[in-house]
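Blinded run. Sample ID left blank on purpose so nobody reads anything into the name before looking at the predicted structure. Input follows.
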Amino acid sequence: MSVRNTVKSIQDIMRQDAGVDGDAQRISQLCWMFFLKIIDDQDQELELTQDGYRSPIPKKYQWRSWAANPEGITGEELLAFVNGDMFPALKGLAVSSKSGDRRRVVKDVFEDAYNYMKSGQLMRQVVNKINDVDFNNLTERQHFGDIYEQILNDLQSAGNAGEYYTPRAVTAFMADRIDPHPGEILFDPACGTGGFLTCAIRHMEKNYVKTPKQREKMQAALRAVEKKQLPHMLCVTNMLLHGIEDPSFVRHDNTLARPLISWGRDERVDIILTNPPFGGREEDGIENNFPTFRTKETADLFLALIVRLLKADGRAAVVLPDGTLFGEGVKTRLKEHLMEECNLHTIVRLPNSVFKPYASIGTNLLFFEKGTPTRDIWFYEHRVPEGQKAYSMTKPIRLEHLQGCIDWWGGKERRGRKETAQSWRVTAEEVKARDYNLDIKNPHTKAVDHGDPETLLADLAAAEIATDTLRNQLKAILAEALAR
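Blinded prediction complete.
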C-alpha cells in the first residue's frame, strides 16, 4: 500500500472512533503516534551506526516493544497500557540539562498530549497501518513528508488551529529571499508547525549543505519556540521527518514571557523568519515586559522583540497584517523604532485571500536588516493570477505565483530595482511625514472612474421608478389571474 493510501486509511479508521472529534483532534492523535514510530525507526538506525547509543524512550514504551507486532495487545488491554502506563511514564521522563538529550524532546511532546481514541480495537488497526511506513527508507520518508505537509495544510480548516499554518509558498519565498547559510543562527520565535524551519532547511540542503559537517553546522544553529502544545508537537515531528536528530531546539514556551531587556547580546541571532500570531492578545502582565511598547497585541510585541534579537547586520522576514502598517499609538512608535534601528528595505503586499479560509485580511511581508536606519522602502504589490478572482483552498498561492517578485528583486544586493506597475519606492522622510503610516497604496493603480455622482443618483432614481412600475404591473397581473 502507498504511503498516501496508508494515511487515508488511518484517517478513515479514526473517524469511526467516538472519542476523536474533528480534524484538530485527529491530527493531534496522528502526531503522537507517528512521533513514536519515527523516533523508534531513527533509534534503530542510530543503534547500528553509533557505539553506545541508547534510546531516550524506556524499552517497555518503545514502538517496537508494544506496537510492532500486528498480533500484539489490543482492546481494553491496549487502552489501559497507553492511558495508564505509557503516557504517565513519558510525561514524567527524567531529563538532564545536557544539550542533545533526546529525552527532553519526548517529554516535551507528551507533556500536554492526549489519547482521544476510545476503542482499543480501532487503535490497534491504526497502529498496524502505521507499521506499513518505514521512516528509515528515504523515499518513503520524503513521500510521507509531503503528505505531512498536506495534513498540516488541513489545519487551516480545523477551527483556530489554522493560525499555526502559513502557506508553504509564502514560507518558501521568504526563506529564499533571506538566503540562510549553515552556521547562521536562525530563529523563529513563534514557530507554529515549523514551516519556516523546514523551508530554511530545504533551502540550505539544496544550495549549501554538501557534507555531514555542514549539516551538523546547520542543525546546531537552528532555534525555535512555540507556545501551544499541538503545533509544538507537530513541529518536533516535522523536524524528525526532515532528518533532524535532535529537535530539542524547538522549545515549548512563550517567547514574550521574558522582559525585553533581559535578552542579552549573547542571545542575538543572525536571521529571524516568522509569522507571529496577529489578532491575538496576550495575557495580563505580559505587556509589562515591554515598558516602551506597552500593549497586549501579540504581533506588536513580537515586532519589538525581533528588532532587539537581531545581531548587527542580522536580517529578518516577518509576516504582519495591514493593521500594523496603518495603526497608530504604540504601532507608530514601533514603526519609528524599526526604521531607526533597521533598514526596512522591502514590503511585499499580499492580497486578502492568501490566508483563506483561516483569515481574510490583508497581509504583508516585511524584509529588514539591523544596523542602519531606513532611507528608502520598496513596495511590491503581489496580485492574484489573471483569470482567478482570489486564492482559495482549492486554488492556493504557489511559489511560481511569486516568481515575478523574485525576478524584480535584484539579487542578493537588490540592485537594479525599477518602478513598475506593481512596485514603487517611498523615502523614509515621506513615511515620517505620514506619521509612520506604511499603508501606502500603489500609485500606479488607476482609480476606477465610477462616473459623475449626480448622474449616478439620477440613474438610480430612474431605476427605482422603473422597478416600482414593473412591481405594480406584476401585482395587477396576479390579481387578475386570482380573480378568474
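Unblinding after everyone has recorded impressions. Residues 46 and 53 are 7 Å apart (CA to CA).
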